[in-house]
Design a protein that fits this description.
heterodimer, A: 205 residues, alpha+beta, 2 domains, 4-stranded antiparallel beta sheet, 49% helix, B: 186 residues, mainly alpha, Rna Polymerase Sigma Factor, Chain: A, Arc Repressor Mutant, subunit A, 0% strand
Chain lengths: 205, 186
């Protein structure tokens, strides 16, 4: 193999055993190809390091604000018929919310320490169920840590076991291990669920 | 990842209020990196990434699951970034200054953020001097670690072309780094 062939084979990155020996033998006598080999390694390492390139924080903020604005815009544009349906749904939701607040107050009397912050949704695989405890509103523009927790819930809506936790610091995860034991979930049946939480930054609650 | 993409898609389709956060956490950084590799400019990439993520939300009802959510988002990102690049080349406005970068990350101080950007800047600069099709394929393979099959699907090219283009792209990038070694030696 000549230098061009050696370089092509090295760049293809799929050398067989025999080819590897041939390339090694060539590299030991050819400084120019050795330089290319080093440059290939540096290039690959640098491309992999690009994974740590996170977007600027302003991107997340701008995106969530744009989503929130879009939602508001869409609500305003609802046609008459849909408005009636929407108002009906809102009425029913308010009634439901009142019931939930009653249940919540019963389950979490005032002064309960470590009140959960924001609960977003519980996802069983393939469908989405609205949670009832705690009945907190979702703040779309809120900055925070997203945590997802895979957990087993029993027939009484109580957490049986945490299977996996993702996101958040160890301290935060520990705090939520304690909180989850106190929460009650509204689920149709016992089983494993995925809980997604957005925890606002301190001072943003 | 414990929330499956199919749950994410479902949540996006029913416009679940909390799902945008999770969607951003999972795909925002990838979309930004890809946009950055095509456009080579943080401000343009950030703007482009915002458009892409919003476009995905708006068109999710049409997502049939014929490809994975990831490859679908990558295709949208590359198309949007390419169009943007053409427009920017026409405008001949490819500048970037550190003053324009938002340094208000809550998780890290401005200095750490600037340092991390500087490290990534070297490879982004080297990529900027390559042909656009080389930049894309290198980032898809080496940074996003996609398989040859996934790359072939996204770029609509045969697998053999993926292999040969990738090899040429690696050599072209290595050449950029080799030039840099030599400049440092001088």
């Amino acid at each position: 193999m000549n230098c061009d062939e050696i370089r092509e084979r090295m760049a293809a990155n799929d050398l067989s055993g025999i080819e590897r020996d041939q390339v090694q033998a060539h590299l030991s006598t050819c400084p120019a190809c050795r330089e290319i080999q080093e440059a290939l390694e540096v290039a690959t390492r640098n491309l992999k390091a690009l994974r740590s390139l996170d977007p600027p924080p302003s991107l997340r903020r701008a995106f969530l604000q744009r989503v929130a604005r879009d939602r508001k815009g869409r609500t305003r544009r609802l046609p008459g018929m849909l408005w009636e349906t929407t108002l009906g749904v809102i009425g029913a939701s308010v009634m439901l919310l009142l019931v939930l607040i009653l249940i919540y107050t019963h389950a979490f009397p005032p002064g309960t320490p470590e009140e959960p912050l924001i609960l977003v949704q519980v996802f069983p695989s393939g469908r989405v169920v609205q949670t009832v405890h705690p009945p907190r509103s979702v703040l779309l523009d809120e900055r925070g840590t997203v945590m997802s927790i895979h957990l087993l819930i029993d027939q009484h809506g109580k957490m049986e076991k945490i299977l996996e936790m993702e996101g958040g610091s160890e301290k935060l995860q520990e705090r939520y291990r304690g909180l989850l034991r106190r929460w009650t979930f509204s689920v149709a049946e016992a089983g494993d669920y995925i809980l997604v939480l957005t925890i606002p930054e301190p001072g943003k609650k | 990842m414990i929330v499956k993409d199919e749950d994410l898609v479902y949540g996006l389709k029913i416009r679940d209020p909390g799902i945008s956060e999770l969607f951003f956490s999972r795909y925002g950084p990838m979309v930004f990196r890809l946009a950055m590799s095509v456009l080579g400019d943080e401000i343009l990439a950030s703007d482009c990434a915002q458009d892409v993520l919003f476009k995905v939300l708006r068109s999710i009802q049409g997502f049939q699951g014929r490809s994975t959510l990831k490859t679908w988002i990558i295709s949208i990102t590359l198309n949007t970034a390419r169009t943007r690049l053409k427009r920017e080349i026409k405008r001949n406005r490819r500048s970037r200054s550190l003053e324009d970068i938002d340094l208000s990350s809550p998780a890290e101080g401005p200095e750490q953020y600037a340092l991390r950007m500087e490290r990534s800047d070297k490879v982004v600069r080297a990529l900027r001097d390559l042909r656009p099709e080389y930049r894309e394929i290198l980032v898809l393979r080496e940074t996003e670690e996609l398989s040859y099959e996934e790359i072939a699907e996204i770029l609509s090219i045969p697998i053999g072309t993926v292999r040969s283009r990738l090899a040429r792209a690696r050599l072209a990038l290595a050449e950029q780094f080799r030039k840099e070694f030599r400049n440092h030696e001088l």
